[in-house]
Amino acid sequence: MSEGKTTEVMDKTKSEGKTTAAPEHSGSHVLVAIDKSKYCDDVLRWCASHLKGGATKITFIHAYEWNSAPVLPGPGFAATGGVVSANIVELNKHIRKHAIEEATKFMQDTAKKAKAMGFTPHELKLVNGSPTTTIKNAILDYTEKFTPDMLVCGSRGMGAMGRMFLGSVSDYLMHNCKCTVVVVKSPPAPKK
Q1: Would you call 83 helix, strand, or coil by DSSP?
Q2: Which residues make beta-bridge pairs with 128?
Q3: In this predicted model, what pLDDT tens digit does every residue of 84-98 receive, in sequence order?
């Protein structure tokens, strides 16, 4: 991986069917889903202890999010000759560009943290997690297109009610990815 190089992946390819093969991570492609939660360090620690020297290719994937600026007519609103819509388009381009820059910096910082732990990702991939799709679908689409042997992701430990109302990314990936999915749980909090 060239230092500081992040590739954005936007393709959304869908394929049908399921496989049940559980390939070994040794000598294979391992996709590591990272996010800005406090659980990301747990995923990195797990990878440092289980993937060192074992995976031929380690790819970090991060689904960045951005929300487009809506055009909301209100008092004083006057659309003249497409000026407002052109400004909104430019504003949305700026918002998206900023989200990509922020996500790229996060990925580069996380790659440095991983290197300090003793392993280095070979690739950094950004996928668009909004506004047209969800984070879990963006990651699933990537796994379907690039077919890693294993996906490693974290768990926020929401419990059954949280998963029911909010939906769990790791739970969704575990049930829908064709590759092996490792869900890294955080160590339990110390008892007081």
Answers
A1: helix
A2: 64
A3: 566 788 888 888 899
